[in-house]
Amino acid sequence: MIRVLLADDQVLVRAGFRALLDAQPDIEVAGEAANGEEAVALVRELAPDLVLMDIRMPLVDGLAATRRITSDPELTEVKVVMLTTFELDEYVFEALRSGASGFLVKDTEPEELVRAVRAVVGGDALLSPGVTRRLIEEFAARSKEPDGVEGLAELTEREREVMALVGIGLSNEEIARRLVVSPLTAKTHVSRTMVKLGARDRAQLVVLAYESGLVRPGWLG
C-alpha cells in the first residue's frame, strides 16, 4: 500500500485528492496538512511514502518544508512531489534543488496524478525533457563555475556518460538506444550512479549532472 500525505492550504483541493487517491486499491491518504509546518510534523509522525506538497502555503511554504524533509537523514525514503498552479512556477527550480522528485500542475488529469504517485514511489522522477531543459536553462542563467560533486570520481566513464544523458532529459529507453545497450543495462547504470552520488532520485541526478559540469547549457541545441 502506498501511503500519501497531502499538504495544501485549500481544503477543497485536499478533499479532491483524497477522494481520488483513496479510491485506488493500492493507495491510501495517511494524513493532511494545511501548511508546511504541519506537513513536516506529520511526515515525521506518519512516515508516508510520498508527500504531495503545495508550493505556496502559509506559515512555512512548501519549499522550506521540502528542504526540512529531504535534509533529515531519518526521512530519506520519503518522496516529495510539488504541486503548483503553473508549470513554469518560479519555485520549481529551487524545489528540485531541494530534493523534490518532480512536480505536478494542479489541474493534472486524475489518471495522470495516480500514475505519477505510483511512478515516484517506484523510483522514477516527474521530469519531462522539456522540464529538464528549463531546469538547465535556469542553471545557465545563474551560472558560475561548476562545483565539485562528492562521489563523482568514483564513477566509471560509462556511468559519467549515462549521468550526462540523464541530465539532458533522456529516459532509460532513450539512453539504451543512444548507447546501444538494453534498457535494463541503462537502468542499472543509472541506479549505480545514483547510489555512488547519494542522489535521492533521478531529479536530483539531473541537478548534480549540471552542478558537476557534465552537462552544459550548449547541449540544449
From TrEMBL:
Coiled-coil blocks: none
Family annotation (Gene3D superfamilies): 3.40.50.2300
Keywords noted in UniProt: DNA-binding, Phosphoprotein, Transcription, Transcription regulation
Highest rank taxon of the organism: Bacteria
Signal peptide: none
Keyword DNA-binding among UniProt keywords: yes
SMART domains reported in the protein's UniProt record: HTH_LUXR, REC
Residue ranges of every copy of the HTH luxR-type domain listed in the record: 148-213
Name of the protein in its database record: Response regulator transcription factor
